[in-house]
Amino acid sequence: MLTTKRALTFGAGALASALALAACSSGNVSTDSGSAGGGGGNVTLNVATVNNGQMKDMEKLKSEYEKANPGTTVNFQVMEEGDLRAAVTADVASGAGQYDIVTIGAYETPQWGANGWLVDLTPDLESDSAYDVNDLLPPVRDVNTYDGKLFAVPFYGESSILMYNKEVLDKAGVTLGDTPTWQQVADAAKKVNSADMAGICMRGKPGWGDLFAPLTTVVQTFGGNWYDEQWNATVDTPEWKQAVTFYKTMLDESGEKDPVSYSFNECLTALKEGKAAMWADASVAASMLEADDSPVKGKMGYAHMPVEKTQQSGWLWSWNLAIPSSTKQKDAALKFVKWATSKDYIKLVGQQIGWSNVPPGSRTSTYEIPEYKEAAAAYAPITLDVMSSVNPKQPGVNPQPWVGIQYVSIPEFQDVGNQCAQLVADYLAGRSSVDDALAKCQSLAQAAGDKHKS
Predict the structure, then answer these.
(1) Which pairing describes strands 43-50 and 101-105: parallel, antiparallel, or unpaired?
(2) How far apart are CA 290 and CA 264, in angstroms?
(3) Based on the number of CB atoms within 10 Å of its own CB, is 105 exposed (0-12), middle (13-18) or buried (19 or more)?
(4) 219, 213 in Cβ contact below 8 A?
(5) N or C: which end of the chain has fewer CB within 10 A?
(6) Cα separations in angstroms, 103 against 90, 249, 327, 412, 448
(7) pLDDT tens digits for 110-127?
(8) Angle between helices 413-428 and 238-254 (to 10 degrees)
């Protein structure tokens, strides 16, 4: 990660943007302030989290925690990813104190920790032998560390992989290896595409964490990236144009209808319901496709994320639990965070919800649990393999001046990524040209890059 305070300071303009986004977000929070102080009375913890399946499972299991901790009530505010980012950024940056626990990504943690917005968890976690902080997987522990301090703990970690319905591909005579190219995937998608089933589903919904999560990895393996080593924007380049044009062509020929309305949850549903044959996205989705209630359980195949010019093109991400410095419930919040990211919680999920639903990619010991190894046999090994193989220091063809794969670890990227994602989504929807979209994105990216030139 960038180590200068200048690089890590969240600018006033970005904060104002986040506050505006939060005001119009569909994820407005309750104004209930029934929290009590840490003096032994009743405590209410307000948790902001994303509407992914693993987090919804945490909300389902909160009653177990409340039973074991009388007097503590845990309120969940579950939001779509974009709404969560806007609301939490505004709250934490302003010190409003609306949330006691927040779900944030690997992108935010080091920057927010450096700014003093988050509680340093290191002393409490390292002094608790039962928590076993050294059991946290090194890649996801590292991305949540700044200046040797752990400011968030992973709830789950992931890379990205290709997921495909083996029955559909077999019927069409299509075979994919463990390390396919993007062209092989596009060709396969065309062969299995039909009026009733899209050949492939890919994110198209605007947002740096939506459309640009997979698209940035496509750009990188095609030879492009956001910046060169001198922080000159490189969006308006042949490599970007080739990658973005490829993405649109593949969706036009074989993708879901109206891709700009699709992100993670929509593609997950499409694969489960037999409305899409393939999907390249977060590896955590495999656990949901293999869940006991999944219609495609046992029918799926998994491979490394498709490539073009690089050997790997998976991303590295974790959703993490952090405690804002503004909370008045630090001790109670810390106790819940430790519970929700503990070895015992992982076993609780397995026993009560199902072993395939266990949060992956957070703890080494998870992969030693016999029940999990059996339930996750189809995807756990490849998830660990991909997470261990990707290189967040140089995911693309050329060196980069930041650490991160599907994001640029500068404060301005949240705004730049969101605006550029809207421009590219307009292109995907046929409302603009690729040249116009990339030219405008180039200007936005360059203005941000100029702030980090030495």
Answers:
(1) parallel
(2) 16
(3) buried
(4) no
(5) C
(6) 14, 35, 14, 20, 26
(7) 999 999 999 999 999 999
(8) 50
